[in-house]
Amino acid sequence: MDETQILTFYANSRGEWVGELFDDEARLLATTHPATIAAAIFAMGECSLRVETYEGSFTMQFPFDIDEMDPLGDLMEDEKMGKWMSLFCYFSHFDFASTLPYDSRPDIHFHTAVHHLPQRLVKVHPSGPKPMDFESCWKNGFSPSTIRGVRG
User: pLDDT for 26-60, tens place per residue?
Assistant: First the structure.
């Protein structure tokens, strides 16, 4: 099993957990939104990921396997990190390449991830163009209220 993809965490100035995705020693992406990290791993076609915190480390399957809940839970430093990881596990089951036409949020996370990844690592590419609201979401800060057709 290739364990070159590593997920670590740090707290930002607002006390939110930021997930940092590494490929070996190279930092690929850092974000407070677990869906973007999940979309990056999906784009790389990976089937496992090493999660490292101050509490320890664990290699999880991607998508998340329910049998891994206890070992992953043991790594969480607080409730906020646990919620971040819970959402990440949920998003790990998304098929980011086949999003729904009425919900552009997964597509935005997928395009964002692919935009930031080195192209040599991208195995799964978006099938269509960037969503119309892609640029405005970046400029205005990504939230459901900044995406056309989605009420926040």
Answer: 999 999 999 999 999 999 999 999 999 999 999 99
Its sign, for the CA torsion 117, 32, 68, 100, is negative
Q: What are φ and ψ of residue 15, in 5° steps? A: 80, 15
What the block records as the tokens of 121 is: 């690592």
Q: What is the pTM of this model?
A: 0.84
Residue count (the chain): 152
Q: For the sheet containing 26-31, what is the strand order?
A: 26-31, 17-23, 5-11, 48-53, 56-61
Instruction: Write the CA distances from 52 to 3, 73, 85, integer angstroms.
Output: 12, 12, 12
Lookup: tokens for 107: 């597509």
- Tell me whether the omega of the peptide bond preceding residue 63 falls within 30 degrees of 0, making it cis: yes
